Amino acid sequence: MAGCLLLLMAGCAEKMRKESEVSFENAQVYLNEKPYTGQVWSDDGTTWCLTATEGTPTAFTLYHNNGQQAFAMTSPADTLQAFDEQGAPISIDTFAVRYKELARQIPALIQRINGTTADTTNLQP
């Protein structure tokens, strides 16, 4: 039984990578130059998580400092959802006003995932 649990955990670990372990190019996720399937977490392991299938991003989640989901985007329908720090759904507009610092990160993160570089020098707080 313990061997099965260890095998299951090892299998799951292979499906989770840190941002620095993968590459992003043309809106695709690669691991060792091959399309990646699994989760990619921010290098700190808490800020954001992206799910990819055969290299194509299918979901993106940004988290509040307390670990609650803050913003979620899914593809291919491009569904957007926003949440307050208690996990309650809020409008995208309310999120942008109430959580300005998190909202400011989203365009740069999306550009990085798309394989482009974000210019954030002129962003206002």
Task: Describe what this molecule looks like in 3D.
The chain is an alpha+beta fold and 125 residues long. A hairpin with a 6-residue loop joins strand 5 (38-41) and strand 6. A 7-stranded mixed beta sheet has the order 1-5-6-7-8-9-10. The protein has helices spanning 2-13, 92-98, 100-113; strands at 16-18, 23-25, 28-31, 34-35, 38-41, 48-53, 56-63, 69-74, 79-83, 89-90. The radius of gyration is 16 Å and the shape is elongated. The chain is built from 3 helices and 10 strands.
Short description:
This protein is α+β, with helices and mostly antiparallel strands. It has helices at residues 2-13, 92-98, 100-113, and strands at residues 16-18, 23-25, 28-31, 34-35, 38-41, 48-53, 56-63, 69-74, 79-83, 89-90.
* Euclidean distance between termini CA atoms: 53 Å
Question: Which sequence of strands runs across the widest sheet?
Answer: 1-5-6-7-8-9-10
Radius of gyration: 16 Å
Extended strand count = 10
Shape: elongated
- Share of helix, binned: 25-40%
Query: Which range does the strand content fall in?
Result: 25-35%
| Secondary-structure element series | HEEEEEEEEEEHH
Going by helix content, strand content and strand pairing, the class is alpha+beta
**How confident is the prediction overall: mean pLDDT?**
83
Note the total helix count.
Answer: 3
Low-confidence stretches: 1-14, 118-125
